[in-house]
DNA sequence: GCCCAGGGTGTTT
DNA sequence: AAACACCATGGG
C-alpha cells in the first residue's frame, strides 16, 4: 500500500496483480453504467466509494482504496477470485462456436454490483440505449446520491456520487423522474423505490433462493420481465447461470455465427453471454440484420 | 420523417 | 401461447 499526498490529505492506493483481466473492457462492456475514462484512468463509484483505476499489463493500481478496503469491496466487485481461464475452457467446450468471442473478450469479468443499483439500472435499460442509460443513472446519482468516500478527488463531482438509496429515490416524484429522461420507466422506478424503501423486496431471498424462485420473485415487480431479471441476478446477485437475452444476443443466436444456445442453463452461461455481448458490440458488421 | 436502443405490460387473436 | 400496440426519449 502506498499513500500519496494530494491537497495536503493522504490518499491511499493499492497495486494488485490482474493477469488476464481488462479493467477497461470490463467497465465498458454494458453491464454497468457509472464509469468514465479520464486520461487513461477508469473513474467511478460503487459501494459508496470513489476510485480511479489504471492498468499496466498484468497489474492494476487502484487509487482511493487501501488493502482492507480492496479486500472488502473491490476484489469482489471486479470478481478477481474466480478462475476465468478454467471457465472459458468449460464454456467453449460446451459451445465451440463461442471460441472467437471468448478469445476476443477474454479480459472481461462479470462484476459483482450492488443489487439495488443493478435493479434500478436495468429497469431503466429497457428499450433504451447505453449512452442514454448512463446519462439517466448519472442524474439519479447527482441529484439523490450521497457524496462517496474520496469525493474530493474527482475531476467531475458527478463521478463520485453514490448510487441513491431506495429511501432517497422514494422521495422523488414520477414527474421528476420523467424530467431526468426516464420516460415511461418513471412509473416503474417510483413503484420500485417505494417498495424497496418499505422493505417489501426481500433481497436475501433473491440472493439465496433456488434460481427459478428468485426469477419469479423479481418478475413479480412491475417493469421487470425476463431480460431485466436475468441481468439483475447476474450482475447484482452473482448468479452466473443467468443468461440475459437482449436484441444483440438474440441476433447472435439467430445468425448462428457464434452460437450460444448450448450455454443456456449451464453453470457459467452468464459469463459466456458476456463474452458474446462484448464480441457482438465490437463487431456489429458481422451481425447485420437480414431482410 | 423513420428506425433503433441490454424490453415490459396489457390486450387481442 | 403467440401476436400486437403502446410505451418516452434521443441519436443516426
Reading the helices and strands in chain order gives EEHEEEEHHHHHHHHHHHHH
Structural class: alpha+beta
Distance between the termini: 57 Å
Radius of gyration: 19 Å
Shape: globular
Helix content: 40-55%
Low-confidence stretches: none
The CATH architecture name of the domain at 2-81 reads: 2-Layer Sandwich
Strand order of the largest sheet: 1-2-6-5-4-3
* Count of DSSP strands: 6
**What is the count of DSSP helices, taking H or I runs of 4+ residues?**
14
Average the pLDDT over all residues and give the rounded result.
95
Largest sheet data: 6 strands, antiparallel
CATH fold-type name of the domain at 2-81: TATA-Binding Protein
Binned strand content: 5-15%
CATH class value of the domain at 2-81: Alpha Beta
What's the layout of helices and strands?
Elements: E1 2-6, E2 9-17, H1 23-27, E3 36-38, E4 41-46, E5 49-56, E6 59-63, H2 67-77, H3 84-94, H4 99-104, H5 115-124, H6 130-144, H7 166-170, H8 174-179, H9 186-197, H10 203-208, H11 211-219, H12 226-237, H13 247-255, H14 269-282
Antiparallel strand pairs: 1-2, 2-6, 3-4, 4-5, 5-6
Helix pairs in contact: 5-12, 11-12
The chain binds a DNA duplex (13 and 12 nucleotides) through residues 30-31, 122, 125-133, 135, 178, 181-186, 188, 222-228, 231, 244-249, 277, 281.
Amino acid at each position: 500500500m502506498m499513500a500519496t499526498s494530494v491537497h495536503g490529505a493522504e490518499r491511499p492506493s493499492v497495486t494488485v496483480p490482474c493477469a488476464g483481466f481488462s479493467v477497461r473492457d470490463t467497465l465498458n462492456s454494458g453491464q454497468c453504467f457509472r464509469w468514465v475514462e479520464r486520461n487513461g484512468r477508469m473513474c467511478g463509484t460503487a459501494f459508496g466509494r470513489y476510485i480511479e483505476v489504471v492498468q499496466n499489463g498484468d497489474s492494476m493500481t487502484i487509487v482511493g482504496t487501501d488493502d482492507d478496503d480492496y479486500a472488502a469491496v473491490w476484489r469482489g466487485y471486479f470478481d478477481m477470485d474466480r478462475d476465468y481461464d478454467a471457465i472459458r475452457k468449460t464454456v467453449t467446450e460446451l459451445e465451440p462456436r463461442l471460441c472467437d468471442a471468448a478469445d476476443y473478450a477474454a479480459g472481461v469479468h462479470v462484476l459483482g454490483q450492488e443489487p439495488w443499483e443493478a435493479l434500478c439500472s436495468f429497469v431503466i435499460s429497457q428499450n433504451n440505449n447505453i449512452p442514454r442509460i448512463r446519462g439517466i443513472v448519472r442524474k439519479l446519482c447527482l441529484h439523490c446520491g450521497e457524496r462517496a468516500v474520496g469525493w474530493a478527488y474527482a475531476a467531475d463531482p458527478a463521478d463520485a456520487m453514490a448510487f441513491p438509496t431506495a429511501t432517497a429515490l422514494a422521495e422523488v416524484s414520477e414527474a421528476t423522474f420523467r424530467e431526468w429522461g426516464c420516460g415511461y420507466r418513471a412509473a416503474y422506478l417510483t413503484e420500485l423505490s417505494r417498495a424497496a424503501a418499505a422493505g417489501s423486496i426481500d433481497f436475501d431471498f433473491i440472493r439465496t433462493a433456488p434460481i427459478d424462485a428468485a426469477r419469479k420473485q423479481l418478475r413479480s415487480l412491475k417493469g421487470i420481465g425476463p431480460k431485466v431479471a436475468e441481468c439483475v441476478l447476474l450482475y447484482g446477485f452473482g448468479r452466473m447461470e443467468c443468461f440475459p437475452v437482449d436484441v444483440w444476443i438474440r441476433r447472435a443466436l439467430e445468425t448462428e455465427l457464434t452460437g450460444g444456445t448450448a450455454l443456456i442453463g449451464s453453470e457459467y452461461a452468464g459469463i459466456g453471454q458476456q463474452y458474446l455481448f462484448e464480441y457482438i458490440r465490437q463487431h456489429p458488421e458481422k451481425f447485420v440484420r437480414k431482410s
